[in-house]
Amino acid sequence: MRLVLLSITILCFSGLCSFFSGKNHRFANIIGAGGTVLGCLIGLAPAATVLWTGQARRFHCVWQIPFGSFSLQLDALSAFFLLMILILSAVAAIYGNTYLWDYRNRKNLGASWFFFNLLVASMALVVISHNGVLFLMAWEIMSLASFFLVTFEDENESVRRAGWIYLIATHIGTAFLFVLFILLAHQFPSLDFDNFSAFGLNGASMAGLAFVLSVIGFGTKAGFMPFHVWLPEAHPAAPSHVSAVMSGVMIKTGIYGLLRTLTFLGRPEPWWGWLLICIGIGSGILGVLFALAQHDLKRLLAYHSVENIGIITLGLGLGVLGLALNQPVLAVLGFGGGLLHVLNHALFKGLLFLGAGAVLHATGVRNIEQLGGLMRHMPWTGTLFLIGSFAICGLPPLNGFVSEFLIYVGAFMGTGLSGVSLSSIGIITGLAAIGGLAGACFTKAFGIVFLGEPRHTPALLGHEVGWGMKIPMLILALGCLSIGLLSPYMVSAMNPVIGSVTGFLHSDITVHLAVVIRPLQWITVLSCIFILILGLLTYLRRRLLSGRTTGESNTWDCGFARPTARMQYTASSYAQPITTMFGFFLQTHRKVHAPEGLFPAESGLHTHTDDVFSQRLFEPLFRRIEQLFLRLHWLQQGRVQIYVLYVAVTILALLIWNLR
Amino acid sequence: MQTLSILHPLAALILSPLLLGIINRTKAYIAGRTGQPLLQAYYDMARLFQKTPVYSRTTTWIFRAGPLVGLASAITALLVLPIGSGAAIFSFTGDLIFLIYLLGVMRFFTVVAALDTGSAFEGMGASREVQFSVLAEPALLLSLLAIGEIGELALAAGVPETLPPLSLSGIYTGLSFSAWMHSGTVLLLAASALLIILLTENSRIPVDDPTTHLELTMIHEVMVLDHSGPDFGMILYGAAIKLWIFSALLAGILIPVRTGYFLLDGVATLGGIFLLAIGIGMIESSMARLRLLRVPQLLSGAGVLAILALVLVLKG
């Protein structure tokens, strides 16, 4: 535990140093990134030990704040999330060190690193704090630090707007958390998590209410539809290494919070599981559909985070259902799949955001329609982005497949059980549809950005990024590959984590996990055979072609001799059949300026897909709220005396209330 | 694992191009032509392997890797595919997901290889391919699951079993003619869904037309327009194996001969596969290609059939 505290201290201290190093960009940059890496490395050791042994470590210290105590606990669940946070943050910091260098003359790098390190420290504190007050404080620091990171380029109007939306959304979510913790504090004398789990909430309706509050509160951070509206705004606005951390691990603190709350609430009701599964299917399918309709690479990735949160929620829903209906195997597979997907998503989404950052760094363009052909100039980035795309589509032999496989098998086990059948069919259909759509989305993202001919001048300027940015991506890609190929070990290693969520015994979980361990071993064997066959075929092809000189020519365009880049399929046209098919959900705006006359002069097509939820749900809602509050405008006279009067009246009223 | 299990992948590797020949001969026979030789696909492949490929200057290594990955995943998929009552070399719980996702790998690489050429035609084909796969994938999974539930019922009824549950081998061993007696409706629904998916995934009429390359409605053929030489040979081979996989899945349901003798059952299913090829030829001769906008409706229909089958089997 001391090491974790040391790690957090180093993070804060290096952040401060970086902040105060003033105009010395180089020093600020190095101390900021170096501090993160050092802090993260120190923190890794205890997290890995706890995960390995499964024995929780604690730290307790009395605190003056009412209901509060400085109490920390590192159990398997915390350690799992902590491990992920530290790894991805360290990798992103190495990347950011190079990435931010370009901004040195325009921006205060020290401030950026200060908030970055603060974000990492607060995320670590969120997952290890064992007291409600401390948790909320860390949660708030996390939200604020990330807000300042999102508004890094605050000279852009769109960035300020994104930051604003994020700030409001995250605080509305936090408001629900306050209600949740007040509800819990109402029942117990202190907000220490021990009390919650020891007593359990009396009354099913109370537990249900607490569950709904936590779904809304934590779901806002995690990006459950329809509370996801801040994600597609904030992720593109932030610098890429920050997007990677935010999308890869920060939104997962929402999942952590939800899981932690579940452990307080005692035995769940079946409808909790159904609710989570509905949210999962909704977030998953709508997330990927909106992603397909985007033209902005980072916005696309942000919507994909919503989709992956959907997959995670499907797993959690299945797990909750398994707990509620006393089907331990469903619980183990559901939670196991969901949690493993949390880790997997951190790896491949981190990789993809860093890849997108490399593209942005090299070309200065985020619009997919203007890119193309980058594979030739940026072979490393392209290949690594391909690996990330492959993993996120859930294709074997990479890691995305493993977690989806767990959830699939869990759902298969559920068909035929009363009360689970419908949910299982829902999960299976949802996962399959998400898989297909993700395939479409990432062939688009990869194919249009990296393949073909450059569509616009910026894409011509693309150049390979330096090792400072390549190595972080390489580390994450290796992570994807190794989890894919070592899946049986990885899934066994999840045992204590599943145990701390479900409360099952270690040996029981081993028995239930055995259902998937053997298949995963075979899948590993088959994956190796696949790679072997691939190698063999490559060798055969090389043998066949040795001694022959292959021809070179233009792309065959049916006899047309001078194909140009403008004749290529664009991202919009590629996605058009699917976006039209699901046009009902997407509500894409189209502005067509069709060619007219014998000698058409100018023509164009402009499509734009707004977020339906923010347009149709939140904007009208907030407008109404604004109107309501305007009615109270008369209270606001702008005279200090009147405000003092308000204060006095309020205190008087409270005193009288107390006399009662 | 049975030692004889190795026979099936071998048979598939050797015989799968024959399916293309059978389909073409059937079509020719119905149209009153002599048609190409039965072994035409083999000749084509042999010729293609001897040719020197031509590559577009736009392309990168992705374009060259596409056919290799496609063929490798098709061959790997054969290893989990059961035939008749004979278990596949590898059978494990949930291997059907692995099979479907391997075909996903094949599609992913075919599509990105097509996009690598920067040609509008191939982009168009790729776009359609992924559109249809969005609908076909859930339908395929659900129909296999429905059949799996029947297999489970049969197993629960007392068929001695050593195979893992919810594996393709387990599912297909559980099927028999008696399964058709007591849950024929479900099997029929699932088989119809599978047939539609077979036609879609293998770019057959009424979804796609494998005979021409250059019309704007083409899907699969247009994606591989730029491939040549050994690369194209591998694509042809991969497509043949894919057709074999789907045919074996469907034939295993339609002709569930389960005598207990591995060879007999295997031969019956092989016969089923070839009969199915004739059937595909007849469908292709008797139908026109659907309008492209109608294809999603056909596929949604397949999805509905699969869901119906699953609901029926879980209810009953």
Task: Kindly describe this structure.
The complex is a heterodimer of chains A (660) and B (316). Chain A starts with a helix and ends with a helix. Chain A has helices at 2-20, 25-53, 76-99, 109-128, 132-150, 157-187, 193-199, 204-222, 231-237, 240-250, 252-264, 270-292, 297-324, 328-363, 374-377, 379-392, 399-414, 421-450, 457-460, 467-485, 487-493, 495-502, 506-545, 571-581, 583-586, 612-630, 640-659, and strands at 57-62, 69-74, 551-553, 589-593, 604-608. By secondary structure, chain A is mainly α. In chain A, strand 1 (57-62) and strand 2 (69-74) form a beta hairpin. Chain A is built from 27 helices and five strands. A two-stranded antiparallel sheet of chain A has the order 1-2. The model of chain B has no long low-confidence stretch (mean pLDDT 87). Chain B has eleven helices and one strand; from the N terminus they run H-H-E-H-H-H-H-H-H-H-H-H. Helices cover 70% and strands 1% of the residues of chain B. Chain B has helices spanning 7-31, 40-50, 61-78, 95-116, 120-156, 168-174, 177-201, 220-223, 229-254, 262-286, 295-315, and one strand at residues 54-56. Chain B is mainly alpha-helical and 316 residues long. Classes of the chains: A mainly alpha (660), B mainly alpha (316). At the A-B interface, helix 16, helix 17, helix 18, helix 23 and strand 3 of A face strand 1, helix 3, helix 4, helix 5 and helix 9 of B. Strand 3 (551-553) of chain A pairs parallel with strand 1 of chain B, so a sheet runs across the interface.
